[in-house]
Amino acid sequence: MENEKSFIALIEKSIKKNWDLNALTDYKGVTLQYNDVARKIEKLHIMFEQTGIKPGDKIAACSRNMSNWGVTFLAAVTYGAVIVPILHEFKPDQVHNIVNHSEAKLLFVGDGVWENLDESAMPDLEGVILINDFSLLVSRNEKLTYARENLNALFGQKYPMNFRKEHVSYYKDSADELLVLNYTSGTTSFSKGVMLPSKAMWSNVMFGHEKLGKFVKAGDSVVSMLPMAHMYGLAFEFLYEFCHGCHIYFLTRMPSPKVILQAFAEVKPKVVVAVPLIIEKIVKKNVLPKLETPTMKFLMQVPLVNDKIREKVREQLMNAFGGNFYEIIVGGAAFNQEIEAFLRSINFPYTVGYGMTECGPIISYEAWDAFKAGSCGKPAPRMEVKILSVDPENVPGEIVTRGDNVMLGYYKNEEATAEVIDEEGWLHTGDLGVMDAEGNITIKGRSKNMLLGPSGQNIYPEEIEDKLNNMLYVNESIVIQALDGKLAALIYPDFELAFANGLTEKQVEEQMEANRIAVNQQIAAYEQIARVKIYHEEFEKTPKKSIKRFLYQEAR
Question: Which of 88, 297, 329, 447 ranks highest by number of CB atoms within 10 Å?
Answer without folding.
Answer: 329
